[in-house]
Amino acid sequence: MSGETALSPDALARACADAMWQDDRASQGLGMQIVEIGPGCATLQMTIQPHMVNGHGIAHGGFIFTLADSAFAFACNSHNDRTVAAQGSISFIRPGKLGDVLVARANEVSRSGRSGIYDVRVSAGDTVIAEFRGHSRSIGGTLVPTGATS
């Protein structure tokens, strides 16, 4: 026995998120913040800024998709299995507006072998803005060293 204690699932999810966040210039550059992380789940938020509004005066769908995709990424990498998106789709339900704080909550639906399915709900307050579904694929490797101690 080496005397090492493995991280709890919650601590491992946080360590994975911290490792990813360190190099995630896209999410950081858009002003996203990690609100909550757990095994198979992640909540991120982002405020709609003037450069994120389209010609209709509403939040550009690409920014909403990016927020959902980032929450998806943090959720599917929370098990310390390096994972990328294989596919993602979004349904826009209501428009986001300038100044809205959008919150994306990602939850694992299933995970088997190298594949996973995650649902992400994007809301502004109590209003659902969009629903995203992502399919993940493990590519091998880890985000934090295995056998990490708590």
What does the model show?
- With 150 residues, the chain is α+β, with helices and mostly antiparallel strands.
- Helix content is 24%, strand content 38%.
- It has one domain: Roll (Thiol Ester Dehydrase, Chain A).
- Strands 1-2-4-5-6-3 form a 6-stranded antiparallel sheet.
- The two termini are 16 Å apart.
- Keywords: Hydrolase, Isomerase.
- InterPro entries: Acyl-CoA_thioesterase_PaaI (IPR052723), HotDog_dom_sf (IPR029069), PaaD (IPR011973), PAAI_dom (IPR003736), Thioestr_dom (IPR006683).
Uncertain parts: none
Name of the CATH architecture: Roll
- How many distinct folded domains? 1
- Helical region count? 3
Largest sheet: 6 strands, antiparallel
Main CATH class: Alpha Beta
Kindly state the mean pLDDT as a whole number?
Answer: 94
Query: What strand order characterises the main sheet?
Result: 1-2-4-5-6-3
Shape: globular
* Order of helical and strand elements: HHEEHEEEE
State Rg: 16 Å
Count of individual beta strands: 6
CATH topology: Thiol Ester Dehydrase, Chain A
- For the termini, the CA-CA separation is 16 Å
- Could you tell me the strand content as a percent range? 35-45%
Structural class: alpha+beta
Q: CATH H level: which superfamily?
A: Hotdog Thioesterase
